[in-house]
Specification:
This protein is an alpha+beta fold. It has one domain. About 25% of the residues lie in helices and about 40% in strands. The strands form 2 sheets. An 8-stranded antiparallel beta sheet has the order 1-4-5-6-9-8-7-10. The longest helix has 24 residues. The radius of gyration is 20 Å and the shape is elongated.
Amino acid sequence: MKNVVVKIGLLAVMVIIAASVSANAQTLQYRLTVDIPFDFSAAGEKLPAGKYWIKRAQQSDGDMVVQISSADGHSNITRLTIPVSANKPVKNGILVFNRYGDEYFLSEIWPAGGVTGRELHKSRAERELARKTQDSGIAAVNAPDVKTVTIQAN
């Protein structure tokens, strides 16, 4: 009986270790690199087109706070995010933008292999554009063209 309990305990430890190793690959512990071809806003901050690095703000704090840095060092913001889930893991890391007319807003960040992504809070400007779209109707002439744009990250 004692041997069975020891074997079950060892098996449980091995499963926990295996799960934690694979979970790290599905988080923002490792930075995403992405080339964004358009100017965009991230939680109220306007950023120019270019190459960006996205990662955890603090390695020990998990993915709740995300840091978005331009490769040229001119832009660096830190934002609070909320978790969002998918039914299937995303194969590659991606960024999801909401586009209203010619304005882009970073909406979600998904690490490679993950079923949990991070969503940024909508800024006042994005909420206002979304409200105008709903008030005027998608088919209306003056309504902004609303689309979701996805960019693959490395």
